[in-house]
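Postdoc handover notes: sequence design on the structure in folder B. Input tokens:
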């Protein structure tokens, strides 16, 4: 039945392109109506009865006075083409945000893409990476004086940063977090200082250390990231996997024998990693709810690939399944993430009140486990 409808639609397309006058002609159903307004006449304004009190009615679209008479040129009139819009430069995928004394960068890219570029920026400018934790999106630099950095960076910081003693040492911590919107990132920088010669390991403040230093670093990083985006910087798959891969993954069972996947990661990294693992495992994600920590999946369909769309002939002849067919063969489940202390547990449910069969849950969790590391 569906293929018959497709053939009928194709026949209609062919017949409509055969030059039928009743379809495309001057009096045809699909004739050009672009000049119809030239033949319209102006009617008298609406009149209100004299015994009715009402505010003045002005025409919504008044015809301007002293317009050229087009009646003599109706036959050869052509509507002028609109002026071409001026091309505008694409907005940068990176922006600087401010709230009081706090400043941070927002990137229209996933954290796994931003992490290696941000880290490379600090290394290229002479900072020594002392510690890094990809699972939490953080890295920190060693204690250094400004004159130990690259010449360009040392010069810019010395001219912009106030309140830093010449021989004092500084270190910074950079944190890359998932943004509010999906596939965005937020980059935070906080600094700590200590007097020259001191061996005290001063901890990082909770929010802001030296505001002018952090602002200068963010400005420099913003310019660097923008240049990297213009040059089409690439991201390695290994870096993406390392960024949100949990430190440990174990598949076991709860007290009722239901399979559970335990991830040694915070919720943000676990959420990002689970989504990536499902897509890598060719599992269709129909919907998601980050607030509830739920991915809604369909095992009967492969992962969505927007770039692979059927052409016109494929759609006409029914090679693309309709929603009714998809619903008929659907195998829908819910992958739920639950915070447990410093870790995350992943379970599979049929719906809100029903756990998935053990063999199905173990199969889904196995796909996730295989594609996480």
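Designed sequence:
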């Amino acid at each position: 039945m569906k293929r018959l409808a497709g053939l009928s639609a194709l026949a209609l397309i062919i017949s409509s392109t055969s030059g039928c006058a009743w379809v495309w002609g001057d009096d045809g159903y699909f004739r050009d109506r672009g000049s119809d307004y030239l033949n319209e006449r102006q009617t008298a304004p609406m009149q209100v009865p004299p015994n009715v009190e009402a505010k003045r009615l002005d025409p919504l679209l008044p015809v301007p006075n002293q317009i050229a008479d087009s009646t003599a040129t109706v036959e050869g009139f052509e509507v002028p083409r609109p002026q071409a819009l001026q091309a505008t430069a694409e907005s940068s995928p990176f922006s600087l945000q401010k709230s009081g004394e706090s400043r941070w960068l927002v990137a229209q890219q996933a954290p796994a893409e931003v992490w290696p570029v941000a880290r490379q920026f600090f290394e290229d400018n002479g900072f020594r990476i002392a510690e890094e934790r990809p699972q939490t999106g953080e890295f920190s630099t060693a204690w250094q004086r400004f004159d130990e950095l690259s010449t360009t960076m040392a010069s810019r910081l010395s001219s912009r940063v106030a309140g830093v003693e010449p021989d004092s040492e500084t270190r910074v911590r950079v944190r890359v977090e998932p943004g509010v919107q999906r596939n965005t990132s937020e980059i935070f920088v906080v600094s700590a200082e200590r007097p020259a010669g001191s061996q005290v390991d001063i901890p990082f403040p909770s929010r802001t250390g030296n505001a002018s230093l952090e602002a200068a670093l963010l400005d420099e990083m913003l310019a660097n990231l923008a240049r990297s985006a213009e040059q089409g910087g690439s991201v390695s798959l290994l870096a993406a996997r390392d960024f949100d891969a949990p430190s440990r993954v174990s598949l076991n069972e709860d007290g009722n024998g239901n399979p559970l996947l335990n991830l040694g990661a915070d919720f943000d990294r676990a959420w990002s990693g689970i989504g990536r693992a499902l897509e890598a495992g060719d599992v269709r994600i129909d919907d998601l709810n980050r607030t509830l920590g739920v991915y809604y999946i369909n095992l009967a369909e492969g992962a969505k690939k927007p770039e692979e769309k059927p052409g016109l002939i494929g759609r006409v002849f029914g090679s693309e399944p309709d929603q009714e067919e998809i619903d008929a063969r659907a195998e829908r489940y819910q992958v739920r993430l639950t915070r447990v202390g410093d870790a995350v547990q992943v379970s599979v449910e049929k719906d809100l009140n029903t756990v998935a069969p053990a063999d199905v849950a173990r199969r889904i969790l196995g796909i996730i486990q295989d594609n996480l590391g």
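Context for whoever picks this up: The radius of gyration is 32 Å. Don't rerun without checking with the PI first.
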